[in-house]
Please model this.
Amino acid sequence: MQKVAVIGAGYVGLVTAACLADLGNRVICVDNDRKKLENLKKGIIPIYEPGLEELIVKNRKSRRISFINSIKEATRKSEIIFICVGTPTQGSHGQTDLSAVEKVASEIARAMNGYKLIVSKSTVPTQTGERIKRTVEMIKRGSVDFDVVSNPEFLREGSAIYDTMHPERIVIGVESSRAQELMRKLYSPIKAPIVVTNIPTAEIIKHACNSFLSTKISFINAIANICELVNADVEKVAEAMGLDKRIGRQFLNAGAGFGGYCFPKDLDAFIHFAGNKGYDFELLKVVRKINTDQKKLLMRKIEDTLWIIKDKNIGVLGLSFKPNTDDIRNSISIEMIKMLQHSQAKIKAYDPHAMGKTRTILKEVKLCKDAYETARNSDCLLIMTEWDEFKQLDLFKLKKLLRQPVIIDGRNIFDPQRMKELGFVYKCVGRC
Ligand SMILES: NC(=O)c1ccc[n+]([C@@H]2O[C@H](COP(=O)([O-])OP(=O)(O)OC[C@H]3O[C@@H](n4cnc5c(N)ncnc54)[C@H](O)[C@@H]3O)[C@@H](O)[C@H]2O)c1
Model:
């Protein structure tokens, strides 16, 4: 049993805290959002993540996990401290806002009452570990010892518990054998290869992974756009490409492009970081441009089909940036809705889990109780998130409810041939 503090009770922090508690550690989870903490103490989980609520309830009962707002108290009572706060983009040039990381590192330094292992799990630009180390060194009182570790997180929202308990690898950027041993001990119940390296390499690994995955998505979207020009089917291209083990099928899904909290901001951050170091990362700039253009292409498909967007009723299925999460940060769906509203369309929308979060940021969208209500009297149904629920919709019923049988599918969830046979005007991405 190790004494662990997790600072930042968000998508990464809560999952990390719950999993480490479930592995038998004593975990104190800290956040500065009082409302979030009050809810957590009542057993109300602020995010939708399959399995998370059960895990937190179970570990609260056995007193292995607790929620407080004091970094000082958590630091004093723990040996290993994870920093899991947000690292959003600052301004328009892709620079990362590291103010939360700096604030947390400073508070930890002020509270240290013995050896502490400070673990950065937030996604940060390379050399942030070094900055954390310098800051703690400068602020700490007396001769207390500490180590800084970079332990980037690779979990995927929607399968975050599984990913944390069964990771494909654990990356540990360390500078001392003491830090390495503590991290190995903490992760010993988890069966996964451990890659041990220095801190800057660990930080680069995270950015390299996310930008490679973004590149795969933009690559297949570029192929999809060519497919549309020559009557070819990108799904078949992806299937055949994916059978090649050197390539793999994952992240070869053509569509409206990638959104979410991580990919867009991490891509911007890596381009910005590389540029600052004197390397113009042109490849990633093109990846970003293709992704931005995908939304515009989808918008053009809607205009091409409906002609005039003004006053058209458009039903949107899916608001979260991907299925199995309620996260709408940088969701392409939300961006599309804003573009359509700008063209004066009337929007109705439905999502299985992201309605609450959407309500707080989108005005003048009628949120519906299900997909069928969204389709009722709509001039067009726009599919933006590939929830399983949408794949199983009764298409006959949908056709009757729509004012005209038009479906624009930004996630390629239906077979175009079948949709044609059913009498839909069905437009998807890169499929004939
Ligand atoms: N969400 C993901 O899928 C994912 C995956 C891998 C890595 N990451 C990275 O992990 C980090 C966290 O991401 P997230 O999605 O969990 O963010 P989040 O916004 O969901 O959570 C961050 C939490 O930190 C809290 N916080 C901020 N400042 C604080 C402070 N000074 N003291 C205490 N708490 C504070 C916030 O209130 C919030 O609850 C980011 O760097 C992100 O890039 C995220």
Summary: The longest helix spans residues 199-230.
